Amino acid sequence: MTQLLSLSRAARLAGVTRADIQRHIRRGDLTTFEGEIAVSDLLRVFPRVSLENDDALERVQRIKAAALPRSHDADTMLPSPAVLVTRLQAMGKALVAKASALDAAQALLDEVETRLTALTSPDADARALAREFTDWLAQARLELAAGPQPDPEAQLFAKDTFLRLMAANIKIIPSGSDFFVEGNESILDASVRAGLNLAYGCSSGNCGACKARVVSGEVWKMRDHDYPLSAREKQMGYILACSNTAVTDLVLEAAEALSVDDLPRQDIRATVRKKEVLDPDLMGLQIQTPRTHTLRFMAGQRALLRLEDGASAELPIASCPCDPRHLQFLVRRRPGNPFAEALFSDQVRPGHLINLEGPLGRFVLDESSPAPAVFIAFGEGIAPVRGLIEHGVSIDLIESFHLYWDAPAGEPFSCQNQWRWYRAMKDALDNFFVTPMVDASLEDILALVIADHPDPVSRRFYLAGPRARIEPLATGLRGLGVPEKHLSQEFLEP
Hints:
This protein is α+β, with helices and mostly antiparallel strands and 494 residues long. It has four domains: 4-63, no CATH class; 69-118 and 150-256, Beta-grasp domain (Ubiquitin-like (UB roll), Roll); 264-360, Translation factors (Elongation Factor Tu (Ef-tu), domain 3, Beta Barrel), CATH 2.40.30; 373-492, Rossmann fold, CATH 3.40.50.80. The protein has 14 helices and 21 strands. It has helices at 7-14, 18-27, 39-45, 55-67, 81-118, 124-146, 152-166, 187-193, 231-236, 338-344, 382-395, 412-428, 442-452, 467-479; strands at 4-6, 32-33, 36-38, 167-173, 178-182, 211-216, 219-221, 238-240, 244-246, 250-253, 266-279, 282-288, 302-306, 312-316, 326-332, 353-360, 373-378, 401-407, 432-438, 460-466, 487-492. It has a six-stranded antiparallel sheet. Strands 5-4-10-6-8 form a five-stranded mixed sheet, sandwiched between helices. Strands 19-18-17-20-21 form a five-stranded parallel sheet, sandwiched between helices. A hairpin with a 2-residue loop joins strand 11 and strand 12 (282-288). Residues 51-57 and 71-76 have low confidence and may be disordered.
């Protein structure tokens, strides 16, 4: 029977990213069966699979660690003893099954030898033939006793067994999304880290919004919860994703937000955690939500921030949904804007309460296609674009990223601040490219894009900035043949 692997697990075993796997699928090198890949096909495209040499896999993990914000260290921790023991038991069952299969093969060889010996008859030709088979079988048994030759599929099985001890793969139905649970993290935390939008509310076991049904696999209850599951629900396999972790690979039936319309409007009482003046008229603002009430949003969306005195501003979120507690914003000082003036003064300090409403907007990543993505940002347009890029890296799906950022002249500090970010991304990711610009003209931007991407029709374009800059650029890209459905635009105040 053909053994099939999910795309995420295939990528881990091969020591590459999911984007690499997707690239081979698009080229026809790999064939998928209901979203999974056959072991034989994976070994054909990536023949050098070894448990001892994990350089490529470690490199992928370093890339993710260097390129993404971290809210905790759960993905670097060993599983708890209870989870590890249960996983070892599950792996032991799999190894016993393999050992049993080998024992059965050995018994089969014994039976073949017995039957061939019995074939000896007075007929000389039959005796010679039986003797020949017996000699061959004896030699085969000697070779088997000396130890089997390295088998690529056996090595893959060994590596897969090792990785299953450290991380369990979860497949969500009906969406087909999959992700890994690592260390001591809950199923919900792992899904958020992977960039998925599973339904949840309090994330502390009180509301029951993260209720999901285990179709196959085994879970371990990490903490008690106040939300009562009925006896019928327990019998059907329902759990709370915030209070359970995965012991083995799981198939989980759960609600997942696949569009902005699937996300509920939320009102959260948050705290100003940090203010950083990037330039005299530009500030970086970090908001921290309560641990029990984080913001569910899609990368690129906006939030309405309101101070205690009623001053408010609707701003793009400049961070990834993989860290929903720590939200980043860029705030521009503008004449007559009470919200900005309050932030630039001592009126609002770290620790002050701030109301957060959202998410808002439809400027989100197209996750239906792994096609190369091109991002063009003007000024503070880097805020939603940064969120899109970090999310794209988190979900490990987009084939490549190219950022064009046109920074205003005279803002060296903000340019330097952003430069540190995308320099780190460029150093960590082989498929990330950046082209910084200063007050570039429309003609210059289009010329750069067509020089870097001679076939723009196959790209997805994400444009963010003042309407006066974005609309002419979008018109120019359409003139290059880019379809309307491949264009996403976010208009910011000038």
